[in-house]
Amino acid sequence: MDRQTLRDWVHRYNAEGIVGLSNRHAARRTPLLNSERMVTIPNQSSVAKAYDEFDKAGRMRPSSYYDRIVDVMEELVKFTLLTRDLSGFLTDRYSERKETAAKLEARVSLKTAT
């Protein structure tokens, strides 16, 4: 991983959360959890000075920053795997179900059909 890639990832994660870490060059499916419903992963602060931890060859030197980045990425992958099939449950909201039911009732109401 080079310095610019890491910097881009940190900025994209800070701006967009997990969705920002997805590959932007390949076609991707619609995110199951959008930015308004993103489940917060605790203890995921950015690594502010990690870009200073690269050697002349562009590789990140062993450091606490490197360890933290690996930890964060592992946690994000694990979290994604654990919640991927649960997005319907995690994003289900009573108020939205209530609105949808009211719209459906208004649309199929027999009173409006006569």
Outline:
With 114 residues, this protein is mainly alpha-helical. It contains 5 helices and no strands.
Looking at this protein, list some descriptive labels.
114 residues
Detail the topology: elements first, then pairings:
Blueprint: H1 3-16, H2 64-83, H3 87-90, H4 94-108, H5 110-113
N-to-C SSE series? HHHHH
Strand tally:
0
Count of domains: 1
- Choose one word for the global shape: elongated
User: Into which percent range does the helicity of residues fall?
Assistant: 40-55%
Distance linking N and C termini: 66 Å
Give the biggest sheet.
none
How large a portion of the residues is in β-strands, by DSSP E?
under 5%
| DSSP helical segment count | 5
Structural class: mainly alpha
- Oligomeric state: single chain
Output the radius of gyration.
21 Å
Please provide a written account of the structure:
- The chain is mainly alpha-helical.
- The chain has one domain.
- The protein has helices at 3-16, 64-83, 87-90, 94-108, 110-113.
